[in-house]
Amino acid sequence: MNDPRIMQKFADVNAIVTESHFVYTSGRHSSVYVNKDALYVHPGVISALCQEMARPYEAEQIDVVVGPVLGGIVLSQWVAHHLNARRTSGETLAVFAEKGSDGVDKHFIFTRGYDAYLPGKNILIVEDILTTGGSAKQAIEAVRQQGGNVVGLTVLCNRGNVQPADVGNVPLHALIELPLQTYTEEECPFCAQGVPINTRLGKGKAFLARQKAAIQP
Known about the structure:
The chain is α/β, with parallel strands linked by helices. The protein has one domain (4-215): Rossmann fold (3-Layer(aba) Sandwich), CATH 3.40.50.2020. The protein has helices at residues 4-12, 36-40, 43-54, 71-86, 134-145, 189-192, 204-215, and strands at 16-17, 22-23, 29-30, 33-34, 64-68, 93-99, 108-109, 122-130, 149-158, 172-177. The strands form three sheets. It has a six-stranded mixed β-sheet with strand order 7-6-5-8-9-10, with helices on both faces. A two-stranded antiparallel ribbon has the order 1-4. A two-stranded antiparallel sheet has the order 2-3. It is globular and about 60 Å long.
């Protein structure tokens, strides 16, 4: 059961939007959207949520917090901050993984010298929203390729009923779980009913642009 205190923090900044037609980053459609960007503009809210994300872990046992770009950058900093507040010695570092920029490698990689901080270290992965778990799994694989030991994945919201097996058999902790009904474009009832796609939130604008390009001669 979701903690009412945490749910209220999402509600206070209108981070859960319902009764519309959304397209997720994964390409799936739904009538509910978790607007993580509504959280990020409130540092106090994000700080409090990241404190909860860090709570299940022994501070001294986490050497580095890793987040995938872009939202994971913010989360990695705040989670590491709250872990450090509980440490009696040493320091938990925060780094981020980014997509390859050569136009070919679309998986997460570590640049800026961050790869040097991972081998042999205990790593906590942070992510904002899980729909399929694909991005989190890629970040986990990137850490493992660098010789890091991934001890857990902690997220703001698991909206796709993602399980540890979906992300490389890593223990998973989510602040809230919203098992939402999602659909492919082909099976989406909102598309079939002609419900307009929300272009303000999610990837609806890009989805419509691709549709338009596909039908142009």
